[in-house]
User: Fold these one by one.
Assistant:
Number 1:
Amino acid sequence: MNKREIILTSTLDLIAEVGIQGTSIPEIIKRSNVAAGTIYYYFNDKSDLINTLYLEIKQESGTAFTENLEQDIPFKERFFLLWKNLYNFYLNNPKKFDLLEDYANSPLVKNEVKAITRTYYQSAIDFLESGIKFGVLRDLPVNLIINMVMGHISTFTRMVLLEELDSSDQLLKKTIQASWDSIKIN
């Protein structure tokens, strides 16, 4: 792992422990065991560091989310695949999930960062827009549909990670079905 990766990993670990606001550059320096100059060689400030970390995780989750989306399978099955892809990414990367959740509700979110992250999910956006266009999904703004589905995935993931729910395949399928039912045309 190079120094930049060490800094990013240390920052993620700190955020998982104390949150974004509780994470400071001195703590990152201490945790990553690098000189202050090394951090400022790679990042302008804490905001730049956290934005970079967020963007890299968002890109990674976007890749996982849209994996195998091009398959020639029915629309509903592709929706189930998308849902499971992101859920599995979150479940297998709880610190990254926490950062994505914390950052989404942070004052650090900038419009340019949102615009960049949209590109990581563009194939999923296009998929959902095609569902609206062809009358499979409700005629709602695509960003509303995305937020509804992401809310379902995030809530289910959080409850599983907190051990408030059993993560059985049967419950997962029922949950995805409920999410599908909320956006499909009856």
Number 2:
Amino acid sequence: MGSKQAAEGGDERIERFVRELSQVGGAASVLDPEGAPSRIAALLKERKAQKVMLDPGSLPRELPLKALRDRLTEEGFEVLEGFGEDVSALRDAAAGVTGALAAVADSGTLLLGGAPRGGWQWASLLPPLHIAVIRADQIRPTLDEALRALREHSQEGGEEFVWITGPSRTADIAITLLLGMHGPRELHAVILS
């Protein structure tokens, strides 16, 4: 496969992922790494967030982390990092920012993982908004391809993982659809191209 064909295949995967994520109630932004801090800050401002959980260990190396921290601080957000067993300080966090191991284009699904009780778990499940930052090349066309990424993660010592397809939802109570009952009401993927 030539480089032009490979690039087109990547673009098609990104478009499919964005479309499928939208179908399940999520949203996505595709931009270069340098633009990501501004986009993340804008998403937080739009939602009038004050506290933000940030899991730097799961974020892609391509994301300018210092620029993200600086931007969030300049905008007046309280940035929480290094969460331990005591989650009481995290209760009021309006958003969590994590990385992802992979994504599935066919379903708009994200695969997150890391060490047990890692910050990625708190930041992706507790706040009402989850922002997942992922590189475009981590988007796999199918679940089978994403499972390969999971196997690699497991071989590197990653012990826990979670699949996320859209915002949290349930219809357990009176068969009424509720968003955010068991996790975030909103999911936004920031794709680094």
